[in-house]
Queue: 4 jobs
Job 1
Amino acid sequence: MLNDQSHLLSRLDTGDDHHIWILYPSERLFDDFLEADEYPPGSEELTETERRDIDYRIHKAFALIDEFSKIWANEIRCVIGTIAVLPTCLGRTQRHFNCRTPYCGVIFVNAFGMNETQIAEAILHESIHQLLWQGWELHPEFQVSAEHADIQSPVTGNVRSVQVMSHAMLIYTATIELLTHTIRTNEYLDYAGELRSRVVALKRGIRVLNAQLSNLINMDAALEILLDNATPERVVQYVYGLQAVK
């Protein structure tokens, strides 16, 4: 796919001989797979300076996740092989996404104008989606089911399926932990106020979303307990069916 365009790739070493590839934008890179509004076919390549800047912030973002939670960092190492950087021409209109199981192991992240904490949140967010989609593919008995039911996110306002919004419960919880850790361990962080406001919004969103989900799906006991206290250990146990959540 990339031929000799090795300058479009950067290696993110994540420890223990593991690595994740950072894939930078290029013209027509994903035009056979993604819609034009997701990844415009005329996307221009970044300059070397732009690539170095994004590379640095993604490295900082993963280091932040690794410092925050070894468990989440290890799961990301297992389920993500490539972080595809979205073209800067999208501005902030497209934040980040993944393609579920048809394109396992790749997450698309908009690093345009994002600080390392925002990038860390995006990586964590999409990695949890990937972890759950892949886990449900392996263990379909764990899937949340609710026919023809959609929910409006209390955080973003977007309308998504019950399955996606059950992911959101876990994502919100993990994100709150990440942001709280970042605030606590960075005494002079100049955007700490923004992070505190986001934590408040996410906590409010969890309460609303929990009520919405309870009205739409019959959660098995393990999932109900998990959503009440979604620690990294509990999520991993639930997804892979390693043991009952207790």
Note: The helical segments are 48-68, 70-79, 116-138, 162-185, 192-216, 221-228, 232-240.
Job 2
Amino acid sequence: MEKSVVVMFFCCFTFLLKAQDSLCVFKLNGSAYAKTTNKLQPLSKGKFINKNQTLILDSSSKLTAINASGEAYKVESNGQFKFKDILKLKTQQSGSLTSKYFKVIWDEFVKKEEGSTVIGGVFRGDILMEFPKDSVMLASSKLTFSWKTNEVDSSYYVFVRNKKTDEMLKLATNGNQISLYKTQPFFSEDNTFEWAVTTEEFPSLDNLTFYSFELISRNQYAEQVKNYTALLTDLEALGLSDAEIETTICEIYGLCK
């Protein structure tokens, strides 16, 4: 018990140190490096810069970094920048939603660095679905379902159910995705559905985990996205493209175009 407490304390202490003394690369255009004494480490999205390192930015390169509190720092000129110099380049964010978003991104990058995310492996019996995630709204006329695959199974079975009528659509493929169109008669009677993927051809549907999704129009999407105006403004100011911003809204807030 005492050993567990010590381990938990050490992990929390390590995280606090990282949160206070590190920045994480959120976006990078061009090339950048973190220099420690005589060691030069190339940077990319998700890499950390600590207080003992110097940021080296190549000509015409731009870098945006975030901290654990959801604050963003933008470096737009080439040269060498000590950690304290980067902290002077904090951007002005227009809403608290941006900070909340960056906190989520920070946590994901920390988990990735610590190896907390599950990579590879066999997914038999586990949830395979990747997109659309659970409880999302979809405005696209083309619905692309994607899922994780493994080296054991070659066939995957997709079940799409109309939540109003309970009508079921069953599809089979040997790939990791399949596309359907909203113009199909199956999607005409309602706008709320759920889907699941399994490696079993005739599974017990009661034992499957389904992800729900709602079909919305482009006009409904435009109205919903107004709730994120401040975030969109901040992300645009940080140099994200329209496609990157749409992906962000989709992945974090479940509003997909």
Note: Confidence is low (pLDDT under 50) at residues 1-17, 116-125.
Job 3
Amino acid sequence: MFRRRTPPARSGPVDLAFTAASAEGGYRFDVHATGQWLETGAPFHQNPAAAAACHVLDRVTELAAVCSVLSHAELEYRANALLGQPADLASASVRVQWVAVHVHARPEDLIDAQTHERLRAKARAAQEEQQLRVAQYVGFRDLLREDPTIALAQLLLENPAAFTPQTVNTMGEIARQVASHAPGAAWVETARLLEKSFGGLPADAQQFIVDRLCTVLMEFGAKAPAERLRTVHRVTEAGDCEGTDT
């Protein structure tokens, strides 16, 4: 009786050269991989060398897809760390004993990628500078809305050479234009109308208006604004703004 002899385990070298796409997509790495594979037993693969080669291709391609062409040395380290130890391919009954990977990037690709990187960095810096200027403009606009005198002081400190007597009038007009576009512009117009008409009235008329406004504010529970109004206009007569809360 003859027994079927089990064929000896096969082994062979891994030696392949290929390219792998980088994270940029337009550039590719040149890869050379060498190593050793070993057949581990049944079921035997018809082409164990191809199975080992596909394993190397897949692993390096996965790593390259998230690596910039400018980081080819990093890709080489990562690929060797991954493939430098045995890996069993269960579906093929093949073990990839070890693989050494060498990665190269073409000089023209490196120059092109470095140029693009500089342009992107320049564009990012320009965008950040523009955003900073916009933020400064918004801050200055808000300052004009709240207190034009502070905006004038800021302008004087930052650019004293450009500050002239005409600047005061110009800034005042700008402040009025900005305020007219601010939220609550109706109140801005009301305050402007009161300011324009109030100063030309006789003293007793001014006193009468202040008293009325103060009383109305108190009636509606706005005690703090009434007291502020009284302080600003120095209402000192007895009974002024001394209404009762209702």
Note: Helices lie at 48-64, 72-83, 107-146, 148-158, 165-180, 185-198, 203-219, 223-232.
Job 4
Amino acid sequence: MAVLLAAVVGVGAGALIMRAASTTPTAAPSTAVSRAPEVVEALPRSTIVAGGGGVSNVYELRTGYPKTTDGAVQAAMNFLITDVGPAYYNQTHYEAIQGYMFASPEARAKMGYSQATIDSMRQTYQINDQGQPLTDGKPDPTRRIWDAVYLQYGAYRIVEASTDEVRVMMWAPYVYGTDANNATTTSNLHIGWAYADKTVSWVDGDWRQSGNKAYPADQVPKPADPNQVITSFAERADLLGTDKGWTLPANAAEVDTPELQLPGK
């Protein structure tokens, strides 16, 4: 504008028992192998790292992903993280990405945003053309947007894919709100759950964001406790289903990570 498993195999050798004084045929040698149960994740895990790959360009926006479906998925994830990633908590990055997105038409075009999309974002967060929060319709230098999506606690699925265009849906928790610039806590932030449905197209040797689809909040699955950001892999499978192609990113996590900032934390 982003958090494994091992199977331990134990092998036990069977013992050969010979009965010398018996007319009963000697039992054939046997081997008994004991294995610990393998842990199988409820959703498959890919090799795609949410927030990884590419070549760092402007701020958190990365370019240079390969012309593959995986490359397109990474690009789509990165567009989302650039818009509303954990780096937003860093004031320098926040000011830079706000100016980059809102003040530069060329940058907006590169990120695949139409003016209509920008206008919608301005209305949602009550900000002006430069991304500055407004109080009573006037820029308020004491306030700023706090926003971060955490893909490692969600999942993604490829909706459509061709050589030059890929549509990927991402389901993830995010924290958001508008608060003071110098807030030392995130107690005024809120937790939400959303689908980010993005289309990226191969243009001039790079993946560019070319489409965004919005979903009403009541259409988005939420965990039993919607204020809980961290979900288990099993809960994600229950919410999203195991037959629709939902996949965990390579860096999926079920535990707290250093970058996670929760309301009141």
Note: The beta strands are 55-58, 61-63, 134-135, 138-139, 143-149, 155-161, 165-180, 190-203, 206-213.
